[in-house]
Amino acid sequence: MRIGEIAALVGITPRAIRHYHHIGLLPEPRRQANGYRSYSVRDAVLLARIRRLTELGLPLEEVRDVLADDAGRELAEVLGELDADLARQEREIQERRRVLAALLEDPLTPDAPLSPALVELLKSAPTTASPAAAKDREHLSLLDTAVGGDAVYAALRPLAEDPAVLRLYERLDELDGAAADDPRIAALADEMAAAVPDEVLAEIPYIGPVATGFGQALLADYPPAQAEVVRRVMQTLTARMHRRP
């Protein structure tokens, strides 16, 4: 293949190929009698690999390290890895389109694209004017990509639909403006933690200690008494997660 042909095949420019030659990222191929470079299928595979890695955000220095690890591998193995990369990208694109389709059909909010599973969960919850419940929804939306998933939201569904949970939120609202040593804190924290079923915790890989950056930011979002309730709930749930088999 000539340089223009391999560039069109891989989807990059001849100028980029020449740059890769210049910096030593892509070895110079053999030249024909007329002086033109002659590229092989392996060269095309290598270029496709370079393009894939750069699209993932790796700088060229790191791409060189990755390619060095690939040296000596069979062509079929490298092709299989490229095919797996493409399959992964197809799955990611399909998931993004699924999210977009759900948003176009029923946009929950104009500025917070959520997973379809979370949209369905939030729609199943009864309507409430509770500020604490609204804040909990915001936090759940924030964690959607980190700890969310169909299994997590399916486990949360009975909790979201339970009217007794609304009363817990209302009791948390009543602590707005109270001191961090309010006598109502301990009982409410215990009840809120007990309301979270083990099925939910089983689907969350890791909550992390309360002292993490996110935990501190989360607690800072609440007034003192409410923050103490949330801190105790997080502490109890984390302990339960560590005790599970």
TrEMBL record:
InterPro entries: DNA-bd_dom_put_sf, MerR-type_HTH_dom, MerR_fam. Residues 1-69 form the HTH merR-type domain. It holds the Pfam family MerR_1. It comes from the Bacteria. Keywords: Coiled coil, DNA-binding. Residues 79-106 form a coiled coil. PANTHER family: HTH MERR-TYPE DOMAIN-CONTAINING PROTEIN, REDOX-CYCLING DRUG-SENSING TRANSCRIPTIONAL ACTIVATOR SOXR. This is MerR family transcriptional regulator. It comes from Streptomyces gibsoniae.
